[in-house]
Structure prediction request, 499 residues.
Amino acid sequence: MPLAHPTATPQGDKVKRRLAVASLTLAVTLGVATLPATAADATPAQRTRAHTAQDTAAARTAAAPPDVDVTKVTAHLGELSAIAGRNGGNRRATGQGYDDSVAYVKGRLQAAGYTVTEQPCTSGCTSGAGPNLIAEWPHGDANRVYMFGAHLDSVSAGPGMNDNGSGSAALLETALTLARQNPAMRDRVRFAWWTDEEQGLNGSDFYVRSLSSTARARIQAYYNFDMVASVNGGYFVNHITSPAAAPMKEYWDSLGLRPEENTEGAGRSDDYSFEQVGIPTSGYAMGAGARKTSAQATKWGGTAGTAYDPCYHRACDTLSNINTTGLDRAADGIAHTLWRQAVRTGTGECGTADAMANGGFENGTSPWTGDTGSIGAHAGQSAHTGTRFAWLAGYGSTRTETISQTVTVPSGCTRVTLGYWLHIDTDESGSTPYDTFTVKADGSTLATLSNADARSGYVQRSADLTAFAGRQVTVTFTATEDASLQTGFVVDDVTLQGG
Prediction:
């Protein structure tokens, strides 16, 4: 992790007219049914897809996040340490130590079946810096990509075992575990090892700048791992309250760690490159040069008043500077997040963790498409939670606005519900439904609201989608205004919930 980096600039407010007439269509295209574990792992009985309790249990086991073997993670660290030792004691981006590190990681990934690419950094990087290394597991929906990344370079002062051999090694063994397990994938997973991070996030910045707008839109979230084995460390999650962070926080919460926001690392590692273009991000860290507080020492152990990593950017960042317990917890949390986000749940599982991404609109506009200018922190309305929402209609002239998202409806749930919070703001009066808001699925009307349902605040609404579990359907929210007196429909916290 470099010493410092500037922070992002917030978006400006959109001023919206609130006079009359509009119509709205919010189309949410729901994904394909979930499948059980791969056919190669299935027994003959499972291949018949008989709906028995034994089949369901087997599918759930195959889809469960694995335990990543920390001894294998530390073995990768040992290789990176040896590489540094053969190359002047470091793995800086412009040296042979970095190139040899790339070769080691690349060789392991190629042998495991990954599609691996070395991406030269042709602009913005330090002269002579080695390439980014990008590895894609060639299964799952290529239009929905989850990225997991760590910088592979060290500073010139030392071998960089915690900064950032720890993140690089944990990421590598997670990738190899995925290949060994070979579960059925719902979405695509892409791993990255970045060059020239220590000189200013240059490798990841180049990668993001090189992506087309379409390629950026396919990335559902980016997860970053920088210094995940600090000897006096804490347990920190980037953007801990965001939807992207939910599975990361969930895993560390399950261990009783009570993680905190990674304030020290904000804007200082490769996730910032993705944040700048509106891609949701999260990640793990255990801290750098900042000092542990008394409260943190009470909660996590260690020494208050001492740096999380006393060897941060120093020659002593060697194999003796590794917190193996923290490294183990980070690696398992990476796998937990990957499985929750991109692996198909087995038949009979009711999984909805990633069913609706950015439903609260807090992380830019992705993956919503359509009239995304309606999404923001607009003057004149307020969010149900957070600061952002979708304000559709309420212009004072006839028009239609649409936003849409592709998601997955789980199978195996007793009930699947599309939930949303809706504030209806109207200048109409009386009980006549001049302006209407209709919820449909595959053309079938599920609910109809109107200006007569206007309230001073948000009201939680829902529609039953149980009949569509395991199918690809289109859910449509349609708001229609007549030619006089505005009605605006403000939508927030859209979810797809199973139970």
